[in-house]
TrEMBL record:
Keywords: Acetylation, ATP-binding, DNA damage, DNA repair, Hydrolase, Kinase, Multifunctional enzyme, Nucleotide-binding, Nucleus, Phosphoprotein, Transferase. The lineage of its organism: Eukaryota, Metazoa, Chordata, Craniata, Vertebrata. Residues 139-148 have a biased composition (Acidic residues). It comes from Pelusios castaneus (West African mud turtle). It is found in: Nucleus. This is Bifunctional polynucleotide phosphatase/kinase. Its main location: nucleus. Monomer. Interacts (via FHA domain) with XRCC4; mainly interacts with XRCC4 phosphorylated by CK2 but is also able to interact at much lower level with unphosphorylated PNKP.
Length: 565
């Protein structure tokens, strides 16, 4: 028996629903849904093969429907074989299919899977608006025929995955749910993907359920008692419970994976061979086949960013889809405050493990909670939460002020580096004809003043895109506007220091040609900052808020991850 959720409008390949393993679906690459009304974690689906049904639980804000029944957040309902699930707001219909062993198809695959059907909205002709009638024998036959075609398509995908693996010299890896089951990893191996190293121990099995662990402070600690190891063999297993618990997880079908940040490697403080030998020795001592992901530098692989997790999902689990809600992640960088438990005086050095789990949607535990059964400790998340930014938020205050002036003016930006000044001015003012002055590109503030003066004399407006933290830096432009006889407005960008740091990291990851801003530069802005005031000579001060807007879903997914612990 196999169970699939099939996109009725052919938007994506059928999603496998393993028996008893919760699968969370929503906006994202799996469903190809980009609609913001659909949460990334819209519904949880739990298949029950014995009753040929799936329990649907809504997590998202907007309604998911099971046939005619509209759910609310937290509601659950049962989806039966052949029934339709509308992912959100009556859109994105999916049919539940339980398949017996595949039969040989009587129809071409292409008949069923292509050409792509146009997405239909709920109620539109061609989609059931009511529960389907009890199938009569001919309908049953028709359904069986489609079923076998779906099954064959899946088999074909499996064969493609297997032959791709073979072509790479790896083992053939059937998709999850096939009777033969994926084979274990044949031999110990290391792979390198830029700033990512991956060790796979002989015998590792792919699985939908992953038990992920941080390394230092979670699975091992130093023998010396120092915070940092004093030599390559300065390590020991953190708690005696660790190997026992890992073996139990393995017996329960979890794949054990370690995710570790080792910035020292790219900083030249730790030789990769030395760390590799240590990782292999730790795995050996734990006595369980596992994978070890090592982020050797900054960038997308470094926790809390999801590069390592995504690599596991996409390239290192033999095409077996991961069930995030049934997986878990354990780490000691959990944002716990000082004295979080008796005898634990120090606060956690960071929150990056908890944030990594939050970014991935993984259930999270500290080592003490997981291995020792302690009660959850208090913790603090960073002050800036990229998940909370509202794309419908209002852009500036006061809201009744004109954004663009019909008569010439000079606009002076004030804000942290990476607050979003250039993006805003280039998208809002430059298209309206404002000349644009930026010290980074022109080279000096004198050249900025000259460019503004020239534009104003031509009867054009101008905008100055510098941080301008204090009255002295702003005065040059106020005087320039006064000399030209035009008003000068201040656009104060309200993004906080924490958000500016996040934006800066995002910019480093997504664009080239901009020098990364250091914390020293950001802190220098903060210490120089003097709130702009009308008394400096501004005609108006507009407070400009950061309203997120992204080129595509991939960029948004990256921006909305916590990027530093
Ligand atoms: N509204 C927005 N939505 C999403 N991302 C944004 C938005 N505004 C800016 N960003 C991103 O934030 C980063 C910093 O933005 P930007 O370069 O505009 O800042 P800035 O204040 O001009 O920086 P600097 O002073 O260092 O030149 C960029 O990666 C940009 O793509």
């Amino acid at each position: 028996m196999q169970c699939f959720l099939e996109s009725r409008d052919g938007q994506h390949e059928p999603v496998t629903l393993p028996d008893g393993v919760p699968v969370v679906l929503g906006r994202g690459p799996l469903t190809r849904v980009t609609d913001k009304k659909c949460s990334r974690r819209q519904v949880e689906l739990l298949a029950d093969y014995r009753h040929r049904a799936v329990r649907v639980t809504q997590y998202g804000v907007n309604p998911t429907s099971v046939e005619e029944l509209q759910l609310h957040p937290g509601d659950s309902s049962t989806l039966q074989d052949g029934q339709t699930l509308w992912l959100v707001n009556g859109c994105y219909p999916h049919t539940l299919r339980f398949l017996p062993a595949p039969k040989s198809p009587r129809r071409s695959l292409l008949d069923f899977f292509s050409p792509k059907r146009r997405p239909l909205a709920k109620g539109e002709e061609g989609w059931p608006s009511k529960r389907p009638k009890a199938p009569s024998p001919p309908e049953e036959q028709e359904e069986e025929e489609e079923d076998s075609v779906v099954a064959m398509k899946l088999r074909q995908l499996q064969e493609m995955a297997a032959s791709a693996e073979q072509a790479k010299g790896g083992a053939s890896c059937p998709l999850q749910g096939e009777p033969s089951g994926p084979p274990p990893h044949p031999r110990d191996s290391w792979e390198e993907h830029g700033k990512l190293l991956v060790f796979t121990k002989e015998g590792v099995m792919p699985s939908a359920k992953v038990a992920g662990f941080d390394l230092d402070g979670t699975v091992i600690t130093t023998k010396s008692g120092k915070v940092f190891p004093t030599s390559p063999d300065d390590w020991r297993i953190l708690y005696p419970e660790v190997p026992r618990k890992l073996k139990q997880l393995q017996r329960e079908g979890y794949k054990i994976v370690i995710f570790t940040n080792q910035l020292g490697i790219s900083r030249g403080r730790l030789r990769p061979e030395v760390f590799k030998a240590k990782a292999e020795a730790v795995v050996e001592q734990l006595g369980v086949p596992m994978q070890v992901f090592v982020a050797t530098g900054t960038g997308i692989y470094r926790k809390p960013l999801l590069g390592m997790w995504e690599h596991l999902c996409e390239k290192a689990n033999s095409a077996v889809a991961l069930a995030v809600q049934s997986s878990l992640y354990i780490g000691d960088a959990a944002g716990r405050p000082p004295n979080w438990a008796p005898g634990h005086k120090k606060k956690d050095f960071s929150c990056s493990d908890r944030l990594f789990a939050l970014n991935a949607g993984l259930p999270f535990y500290t080592p003490e909670e997981f291995f020792l059964g302690w009660a959850p400790a208090p913790y603090q998340l960073p002050p800036f939460d990229p998940r909370e930014l509202d794309p419908q938020g209002h852009l500036y205050d006061p809201p009744d002020a004109p954004l663009v002036s019909p008569t010439p003016e000079l606009v002076v930006a004030v804000g942290f580096p990476a607050a979003g000044k250039s993006t805003f001015l280039k998208s809002q003012l430059v298209p309206a004809g404002y000349a644009y002055a930026n010290r980074d590109t022109l080279g000096s503030w004198q050249k900025c003043v000259a460019l503004c003066m020239a534009a104003l004399q031509e009867g054009k407006s101008a905008a100055v895109d510098n941080t301008n933290p204090d009255p002295e830096s702003r005065r040059r432009y106020i005087e320039c506007a006064r000399d030209a006889g035009v008003p000068c407005r201040c656009f104060l960008f309200t993004a906080t220091l924490e958000q500016a740091k996040h934006n800066n990291r995002f910019r480093d990851l997504t664009s080239t040609g901009h020098i990364s801003v250091t914390d020293i530069v950001l802190n220098s802005y903060r210490s120089k900052f003097v709130e702009p005031s009308l008394s400096e000579g501004f005609a108006q001060i507009l407070r400009v808020h950061f309203v997120p807007c992204f080129a595509d879903a991939h960029q948004e997914a990256l921006y909305r991850q916590f990027s530093e612990g």
